[in-house]
Amino acid sequence: MTYRVAVSSTDGKVVNRHFGHTEKFLIFEITGEDKYCFVESRSIQPCCNNGEHEMQAFYNAIEALEDVQAVIVSKIGEGAAAFLESKGLTIYEAPYPIEPIIQKILDEKLYEVDKWRFHISN
């Protein structure tokens, strides 16, 4: 079984974008064999526009991430985090280099958390 993680990064090396300002997610796939790989990049409309939140942009983001189980961002507001979690996503607020974060998910087998194993459709 595989799990997908969406990472908010502008340079592909560091998690450096706030969820509301994210224009592109990097999608990584984690396999049960303790391996991961980059799959693709996905563009989305930022959910925050000059401090105003656009609900349609939130729904569009959920649609773009429909096959993803977790999101890694540098920062996320409480409302956005609650919305994503209500859609079945796990949120990691981790403004660090991407590789060690994904390695930590692998090492600690965080992908085996029940809500991932029994993931409900977004």
Provide a descriptive summary of the structure in words:
- By secondary structure, this protein is α/β, with parallel strands linked by helices.
- It has a single domain (2-117), classed as 2-Layer Sandwich (Nucleotidyltransferase, domain 5).
- It has 4 helices and 7 strands, in the order E-E-E-E-E-H-E-H-E-H-H.
- The chain has helices spanning 55-64, 78-86, 98-107, 114-117; strands at 2-8, 24-31, 35-43, 48-49, 52-53, 70-73, 90-93.
- The strands form 2 sheets. A 5-stranded mixed β-sheet has the order 3-2-1-6-7, with helices on both faces. Strands 4-5 form a two-stranded antiparallel sheet.
- Strand 2 and strand 3 form a beta hairpin.
- It is globular and about 40 Å long.
- Mean pLDDT is 87; it is low at 116-122.
Can you give the mean pLDDT? 87
Helix content: 25-40%
Largest sheet: 5 strands, mixed
CATH class category name = Alpha Beta
Instruction: Give the total of domains.
Output: 1
Number of strand elements: 7
Query: How many whole angstroms does the radius of gyration measure?
Result: 13 Å
Protein name: Putative Fe-Mo cluster-binding NifX family protein
Pfam family, one: Nitro_FeMo-Co
Organism: Ruminiclostridium sufflavum DSM 19573
Domain Dinitrogenase iron-molybdenum cofactor biosynthesis: 11-105
